[in-house]
Amino acid sequence: MRLFTALxxxxxxxxxxxxxxxxxxPAASLRWSPPHNMHVTAKFIGEWPEERLExxxxxxxxxxxxxxxxxxxxxxxxxxxxRAPRVFWGGIEASEGLYQLARDADRAMSRLGVASEKRDFSxxxxxxxxxxxxxxxxxxxxxxxLPSTEFGAFTVxxxxxxxxxxxxxxSKYTKLAEFAL
Length: 181
Prior knowledge:
Layout: E1 2-8, H1 11-24, E2 31-32, E3 39-47, H2 53-61, E4 69-79, E5 87-94, H3 96-111, E6 124-129, H4 137-144, E7 150-156, E8 158-167, E9 170-180
Antiparallel strand pairs: 1-3, 1-8, 2-6, 4-5, 4-7, 5-6, 8-9
């Protein structure tokens, strides 16, 4: 099973992102993410044996609680950069608790044998994946014409363990456990 931990978005933020993508989708032929699937990943665990699921749940239950986390969804950008992008993202600004949660989850999972993150934690929402050779001029123009790149702010008091199942219509996410912050 493929696992990750994440914070959920509020319904208001999801609606705002739906409006954004409705506006941008016609401008480029990309693999757009459905807003109802978006989340703020704290730790990607990857493939994990189902018979060891309780170990992951136990490790996550034992994480220090950073308290409520303030999150703002604002800004748009490209990974790895604007010249040769592979991912179009929405920015996440969050209180220190999110960064602490990511560090603690990474440490806890590494004790179970999951590889530690090599890159600095960079919270974001994957809005679209960009296929090689995609024409982006129209998308860049549509982004420039946006009245705002502020999509909402909220406070979360819990995070979740999710299972991701890949399918022809994209990934399907199922909550397996909930953890208070």
